[in-house]
Specification:
The protein is mainly alpha-helical and 427 residues long. The protein has one domain. The protein contains 20 helices and no strands. The chain is globular. InterPro entries: DctM, TRAP_DctM. Part of the tripartite ATP-independent periplasmic (TRAP) transport system.
Length: 427
């Protein structure tokens, strides 16, 4: 009865429109009260849930995403990507994917990435002859790659919840699947653009000067080298890398491009504080829910029930894929991890799945859900910016979903797509 109360309370509150964090905290508190556990466990677990060193990286990576957006790095990367891709049908949509992959890895939030890239690219895509519904589909799908490509806030949260998977190992493991996901999106984009003649209006426009574009983009291109290379060289931890990325971004914005002002700095601090506050409140209140479920043995019994359904390892994995893609339509990656990992990790342990591989697999599933209608969070943002209803994107977005599902199948069939790089790097 108490286990049922835990989940029923959460579902009822969620359906009623209660914020996810509040629904998790109230459901956990109710279960603790009904089980006659000490109610002091509520504030204690809320505190211990966020009193973890790796979580210090979250506000820093959020801040560096805002810095790179406001400093003009994004438009310089667009110009350089155009030089690389050229002017042909589908090229500007491909540039949108490439820029989304780069900026998304810094911002760590799919909806935030969709908003930033959408604001910069919707107008240019429309002028080049792309329908707005198609542009919204491309932006929503491209933004989904952000939680795979390091540095990823979702992977940081996963490492906090699953201590067996370190942040450097997860960052390395997400690199190849994240790049494959972005490349997979390019296939339907070029096919559809050539078939319908999208982007032909840009063919006659001159390319930006290559070396000039490269010199302007080099400061943005060096950011991943600084973050990932510094961690690999042992110069700093992932948390310290986030701080270094902020310092680097401020240096580029104030000294190199001279595009930032003190007013921008204040607004970026406020923006980063608001976003980080939301994330950490969710983490804190979800910790209450997780502690209640673990203490009462709810998650272990649920895991045993799922495994006991029969069908073996791959049938269970297929069930989890469907479940997570559906849940990913409604929730961001961080919330999904916080809610479901206490249930999923016992299942992974029973089948002996590698926690690093499993983390990347879960993240890819959630990424697909974030641009799968009818409740795709990334697509909601891009459709709002483009001024189109979500149903207008259906014919365009499903081929992109199919291409990402193929990457998911490849990751299941060949786990070394995620595990090879961490092994080579010694993680």
């Amino acid at each position: 009865m108490i286990a049922a109360a835990l989940f029923v309370c959460f579902l009822v509150l969620f359906v009623l429109g209660t914020p996810v964090a509040v629904a998790l905290g109230l459901a956990g508190t109710l279960a603790i009260y009904l089980a006659d556990l000490n109610l002091l466990a509520v504030p204690t677990n809320a505190y211990t849930g966020i009193a973890k060193y790796p979580l210090l990286a979250v506000p820093m990576f959020v801040l560096v995403g805002a810095i790179f957006d406001r400093s003009g790095v994004a438009i310089r990367l667009v110009n350089f990507a155009i030089c690389l891709v050229g002017r042909r049908a589908g090229s500007l949509a491909a540039v949108t994917v490439l820029v989304s992959m780069f900026l998304g890895g810094i911002s760590g939030s799919g909806p935030a990435n969709a908003a930033a890239v959408g604001g910069a690219m919707i107008g240019a895509l429309s002028r080049a002859g792309y329908p707005r519904a198609y542009s919204a589909s491309v932006i929503g799908a491209a933004a989904a790659t952000d939680i795979l490509i390091p540095p990823s806030i979702a992977l940081i949260i996963y490492s906090v919840l699953v201590p067996q998977a370190s942040v450097p190992a997860l960052f390395a493991a997400g690199m190849i699947p994240g790049l494959l996901a972005g490349i997979a999106l390019l296939v339907p984009i070029f096919y559809t653009s050539n078939k319908h003649g999208f982007g032909l209006a840009e063919k006659d426009e001159p390319l930006p000067p290559f070396w000039k574009s490269f010199r302007e983009a080099i400061w943005g291109l060096m950011a991943p080298v600084l973050i990932l290379g510094g961690m690999r060289a042992g110069w700093f931890t992932p948390t310290e890398a986030a701080v270094m990325a902020v310092v680097y971004g401020l240096f580029v914005g104030f000294v190199i491009f001279r595009s930032l002002t003190l007013k921008d700095l204040y607004e970026m601090f406020v923006e980063a504080a608001e976003i980080s506050g939301v994330i950490l409140v969710v983490v804190a209140l979800a910790s209450i829910f997780g502690w209640a479920g673990s203490t009462l043995g709810v998650f272990d019994r649920a895991a045993e029930a799922i495994v006991g359904l029969g069908g073996g390892e791959y049938a269970t994995l297929a069930l989890l894929i469907v479940m997570l893609i559906v849940i990913g339509m409604f929730l961001d990656g961080v919330s999904t991890f916080l809610i479901l990992l206490p249930l999923l990790m016992p299942i992974a342990a029973k089948f002996g799945w590698d926690p690093v591989w499993f983390g990347v697999l879960l993240t890819l599933k959630i990424a697909i859900g974030q641009f799968t209608p009818p409740m795709a969070v990334n697509l909601m943002v891009s459709c709002r910016i483009a001024g189109v209803p979500m149903e207008a994107t259906l014919r365009w977005v499903f081929p992109m979903i199919g291409s990402m599902v193929l990457v998911l199948v490849a990751l299941i069939a060949f786990p070394d797509l995620a595990l090879w790089l961490p092994r080579v790097l010694g993680y």
